[in-house]
């Protein structure tokens, strides 16, 4: 789950729609206590919390094996977010590999955080696009929530862009085109993503991308609707968000412009270690053309990074018809009939060579326990509607 930010002292006007600033949580929070229910091979007290499946088709669901934590073997740490860790896991009965994101309930103390977590789950369940990570199961223990998802073995685009320094135009075009289709799909479902950045763009073993992390997404936003919450990662935030102004789907096209800029040059526009300077420049300065930018790319970047959302390319149709994409066959791309630029090589399905050592080298067992900043408030409360198994969301769980 991502974080909403307060920049320039701006305050979200909608309490229910904000999250806690990840930067405020500190590193301690990331030291998850795995021993209590993750890494240990001993039977675990939390595993006694079996989720009861209740729903429309009770017979079918009663026959179904309830999925619980002990159904998975935890293999490696593969990522870390503001509210918990992400693991590579293997389902014990069929041997399938998944990614499992763990959120500690005590970190989600406010009602709006709980609601956002349920919303994140609903988005992952309902958004069926080849370019969006799919949720397979969601379940909870007394203290934690678990999302079990497609495992994206190619890791973060962040890793690949840092390694390559920057991408050739054809490579950037391929990934950005798939992102256009992901955003087009989300927007067609009246959902704004609000957290497009290389860390949230994952590569599958097939070399195609999927976006993950819908913790900042907002549903029910029609074309003309605006929201005022200040959300996202500073480097990719549209000026209207920085200024605390109402914003709509245009913010995702701005972030796409930042990602294209970074793919072609190696760094996002206006990048500075000094965050205030970065915000000021984003609002007041012109973007700089890098030598790598060919004319069409530069034109598209300028149109996506227009400071005023009204001047921005702000529908998928407008973006797709820009000359930068003239060679793209959108139909083929949607069917994944276009060969990805990088062929990823793996020794086996547990090979994590494209995932940063910063995560993979962490022990999944016996990670030292660090008390949470937020204490145990809310720790034992169930998150109604979170559980998702066998293709259905389970009420009262
Ligand atoms: N399905 C997946 N397959 C492989 N890796 C994944 C998957 N989902 C997440 N990750 C890894 O875990 C990282 C953190 O996941 P995610 O962004 O969902 O967590 P978060 O707590 O919401 O993070 P943030 O604080 O950045 O918003 C991702 O950037 C990615 O590296």
Automatic annotation (TrEMBL):
Chain positions covered by the region annotation Disordered: 1-48
Keyword tags: ATP-binding, Kinase, Nucleotide-binding, Serine/threonine-protein kinase, Transferase
Entry binding sites for ATP: 101
GO molecular function terms attached to this record: ATP binding; protein serine/threonine kinase activity
Coiled-coil regions listed: none
Residue ranges constituting the Protein kinase domain according to the UniProt record: 72-325
Domain of life: Eukaryota
AGC-kinase C-terminal domain sequence ranges: 326-397
Matching Pfam families: Pkinase (PF00069)
Protein name: Serine/Threonine kinase domain protein
Organism: Tetrahymena thermophila (strain SB210)
Phylogenetic placement of the source organism: Eukaryota, Sar, Alveolata, Ciliophora, Intramacronucleata
């Amino acid at each position: 789950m991502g974080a909403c930010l307060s920049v320039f002292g701006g305050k979200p006007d909608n309490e229910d729609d904000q999250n806690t600033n990840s930067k405020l949580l500190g590193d301690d929070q990331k030291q998850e206590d795995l021993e209590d229910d993750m890494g240990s091979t001993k039977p675990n007290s939390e595993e006694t919390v079996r989720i009861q499946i209740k729903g429309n088709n009770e017979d079918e669901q009663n026959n179904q094996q309830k999925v619980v934590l002990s159904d998975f073997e935890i293999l490696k740490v593969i990522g870390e977010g503001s509210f918990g860790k992400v693991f590579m896991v293997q389902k014990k009965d069929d041997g399938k590999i998944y990614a499992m994101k763990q959120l500690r309930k005590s970190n989600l103390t406010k009602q709006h955080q709980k609601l956002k977590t349920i919303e994140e789950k609903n988005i992952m369940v309902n958004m069926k696009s080849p370019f969006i990570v799919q949720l397979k199961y969601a379940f909870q223990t007394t203290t934690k929530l678990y999302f079990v998802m497609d495992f994206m073995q190619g890791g973060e685009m962040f890793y690949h862009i840092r390694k390559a320094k920057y991408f050739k135009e054809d490579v950037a075009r391929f990934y950005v085109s798939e992102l256009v289709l992901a955003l087009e799909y989300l927007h067609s479902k009246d959902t704004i993503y609000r957290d497009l950045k290389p860390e949230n763009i994952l590569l599958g073993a097939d070399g195609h991308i999927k976006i993950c992390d819908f913790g900042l997404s907002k549903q029910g936003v029609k074309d003309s609707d605006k929201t005022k919450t200040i959300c996202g990662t500073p480097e990719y935030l549209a000026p209207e968000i920085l200024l605390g102004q109402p914003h709509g789907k245009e913010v995702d096209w701005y972030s796409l412009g930042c990602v294209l800029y970074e793919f072609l040059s190696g760094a996002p526009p206006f990048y500075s270690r000094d965050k205030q300077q970065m915000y000021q420049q984003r609002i007041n300065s012109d973007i700089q053309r890098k030598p790598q930018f060919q004319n069409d790319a530069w034109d598209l970047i300028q149109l996506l990074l227009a400071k005023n959302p009204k001047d921005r390319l702000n529908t998928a149709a407008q973006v797709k018809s820009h000359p930068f994409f003239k060679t793209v066959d959108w139909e083929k791309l949607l069917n994944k009939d276009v060969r990805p630029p990088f062929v990823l090589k793996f020794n086996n399905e547990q090979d994590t060579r494209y995932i940063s050592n910063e995560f993979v080298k962490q022990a999944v067992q016996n990670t030292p326990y660090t008390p949470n900043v937020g204490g145990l408030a809310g720790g034992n409360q169930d998150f109604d509607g979170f559980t998702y198994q066998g293709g259905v969301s389970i009420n009262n769980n």
